[in-house]
Amino acid sequence: MSDESENIPAKSRRRVTAQAVAERAGVSRSAVSRAFTQGAYLDQKKKAQILQVAAELGYRPNVFAASLQAESSNIVAVLTGNMKSHFDAELVEELLGRLTAAGKWPLVVSGEKVANAPSIEGLWGFPVDAMILRGGSMDKFVVEACAKLHIPLIISGVTVTSETADSVACRNADGTYALTRLLLERGRRRFAWIDGPTGVVTQESYRRERRKGVIRALEQAGLELVASCDSDYTYEGGLAAAETILRDHDVDALMCANDAMATGALSFVRKTLQLRVPEDLSVTGFDDVSMAGWPCFDLTTVRNPRTEIVDHIMRLLHERLADPSKPGEVVLVSADLVPRGTH
Amino acid sequence: MSDESENIPAKSRRRVTAQAVAERAGVSRSAVSRAFTQGAYLDQKKKAQILQVAAELGYRPNVFAASLQAESSNIVAVLTGNMKSHFDAELVEELLGRLTAAGKWPLVVSGEKVANAPSIEGLWGFPVDAMILRGGSMDKFVVEACAKLHIPLIISGVTVTSETADSVACRNADGTYALTRLLLERGRRRFAWIDGPTGVVTQESYRRERRKGVIRALEQAGLELVASCDSDYTYEGGLAAAETILRDHDVDALMCANDAMATGALSFVRKTLQLRVPEDLSVTGFDDVSMAGWPCFDLTTVRNPRTEIVDHIMRLLHERLADPSKPGEVVLVSADLVPRGTH
DNA sequence: CGCTTATGTGAACACGTGTGCAGAAAGTGC
DNA sequence: GCACTTTCTGCACACGTGTTCACATAAGCG
User: In chain B, which end has fewer C-beta atoms inside a 10 angstrom radius, N or C?
Assistant: First the structure.
């Protein structure tokens, strides 16, 4: 019937194979393979001819077939989480660029709640060299699954103590502690804290840490928070949270758990309330995304050292690939104060 | 020598194979394969036992091996370009989420000048179902290579007429034309245009289009540009360009080729020059990134309909996978005016 | 029991590649 | 011409899977 008319194009759509090149060039399939293998014995003239025929036909050795016998697939799975925060987006972007430059192929799993979605279930079918997680998409069972399947795992944003997984994060508590001290020196006394969302188990640890640094510094000064509010790490969320807090409370320092919320809060304070920052009120963030340095914000914040973190991820990746049995490592990078114009 | 101590761990690091499960469960390898294949003849009891042993050992069928005989690998290559512009970043992020949700696995190639880098050379080795390009990373030879290798290709941001490639872009010229008309109605007469970088061949087409819409509207009003300046689509670049232009020229409408530069220009105009926008001067952008709607910017701009574009990309992907011989399609989506507070 | 049908199973093949191995061809020294 | 080394090449195997095919077992029916 229409078998022929359907099958022939289907056939021709298939990838060009080494066999086809061999037949066209009048050599054995092995020779074709050797033409693409560095340092294999093959007559120079023959090699040149094979490469030309290959170019004509558009042949490339199929990586999947080759990786069946290879030790490494050079593919790295990257779980990004939702990337609502610009910091996450910037970090992932930098990471992907670095992986590409290092000859690794990032297979990205993205979207909401990716860790317990069916998508991750399918991911285990890939012979990936390693998995890299951004904190938001972490879940305990991923760590266990990776351990069982002997897949090197690197987590950033959250620290995990495990024999088989490495993690990188900044010293969140130290960062907010230093920031709070700065505001105290500036004479601030009535502090409010806009926090991240509660209930996201995987972000709970650094959420708690950032808050802890504030509380500790205040305690040492004999103070406590005047107000606190949970939001969602977004600009809009920060704006709404600032409204909620400032409607009912008289505060002179509005600290936010990340920069996105801080810019939202800043907008509300300046545009809607027509208050002067920092004269009437301090507003601070966390992460030091590129936006925070723009003149229109000029936000006082704490640097979450993106490039340094990516450096560590790449280092851990290489080290663990070189020695898979190496014990799990927890890297803590410092979170330095970035005093600008809003404190 | 140390062969044993090195090889044994290496062996044990290898993926668990169907053979191993079969031996452990006392069945044939075929049975294991059938246990993971929907609708294959296999005794229910046996299947349950196999699945349990597989779970214990942490076995998953290797996708690479399976895809050797399969028609489709479900892997889609995504070339992102440099993502300097927030619009690109937001679009890519949405695209990745959609691909994941659709059961496709995005293999991301990222970074500067990715199209002619050695990285893309290695990409041809993967049996990808399709390639998706963001305009910035486009280059003519990619289109030709994809055509030759029968790889479906979808390009966004730039329109390409090709038998084998689809493309999606917005009506750039219409967008800037409408925007310019709005400013003319507002009474503006002395226009300046901050353009994208010259020399990036692959972005030349939409660069030209956006400019053309402005020129055309001005011509119809018997006007021409008072000043023009090339920049780089970034916040910092827009800020610097605004300084260059406003130092030497008296303008009442400062139009920018994208939102990032517009926010930079806005900062310079408001913070540094202490001018009132829009009373003293109009500032406009293009793309309508999420930032543009924030109260602190409230930028008048043109919507580059991100979600609609991603919808089209996904549609084109499915259609072309269903019928690879379908002729190339060029989709133009409208770029609607978003009048806010800076005009 | 004999025949037919339904169900379950292992051997064998195909997918496309890199490489070990043995042997062929070619070059070198006498 | 002969022994020996060097360069080259094709065969065959391995990688891990899905699926066809022939066969075995069991069940249903007269």
Answer: N
